[in-house]
Write a structure and sequence with these properties.
By secondary structure, this protein is mainly α. Helices cover 59% and strands 5% of the residues.
Length: 182
């Protein structure tokens, strides 16, 4: 599967991870410095809309821009109060932004494009790798979130035990069954 195919699948994978979750579950933070499921979705939206979509369009444009500001995702989360925003429109904005970027990438045959993000030189290929890595990190975080419904990942893959931190977290997540994995 190509990197563009993987990037194209992310919005649907995110949709599947949050489907059927209550507002309380979507906003639950397993630790003060961890994103809730809602914050992950809004972060992905903002990084796509304000970052990757702008960068892809700029790099693929004949006349630039080819210099882009760096984006502080943690600052955006604080400034934009992610947990106070509705998730459904954010997910749709994320999916739409991603679809526009994927369409641009599929229309272009020129992968030898270069620019700057902040002070760092980037190639289009490098940007795609960074983008896929960013997606993977957030998909993993969402998969292992106590309210994701993935009890195997929560209890064992993420290194938590049902007798410790996750018991407290799981009790706060209304849609997650408290049961050991098969």
């Amino acid at each position: 599967m190509s990197i563009i195919d993987r990037l194209e699948q992310t919005p649907e994978r995110v949709r599947a991870l949050i489907e059927g979750r209550s507002d309380e579950d979507l906003s639950f933070k397993p630790a003060p410095d961890a994103f809730s499921l809602r914050e992950n979705v809004l972060h992905l939206r903002d990084i796509d809309v304000d970052g990757y979509e702008v960068r892809i369009a700029g790099l693929l444009a004949e006349r630039g821009p080819h210099e882009f500001p760096d984006i502080d995702g943690a600052a955006l989360a604080r400034e934009r109060n992610y947990n106070g925003q509705p998730v459904a429109p954010a997910l749709e904005d994320f999916a739409s932004s991603r679809a526009r970027s994927i369409a641009r990438l599929r229309e272009s045959t020129d992968r030898k494009r270069y620019g700057r993000v902040g002070t760092r030189a980037v190639s289009l290929e490098g940007l795609l790798e960074d983008w896929a890595r960013h997606d993977s990190e957030h998909l993993a975080e969402m998969t292992h979130h106590p309210c994701s419904g993935n009890t195997r990942s929560i209890s064992y893959t993420a290194g938590w035990t049902l007798a410790s931190r996750s018991t407290r977290s799981l009790k706060r997540c209304a849609t997650v069954p408290l049961r050991p994995p098969d």
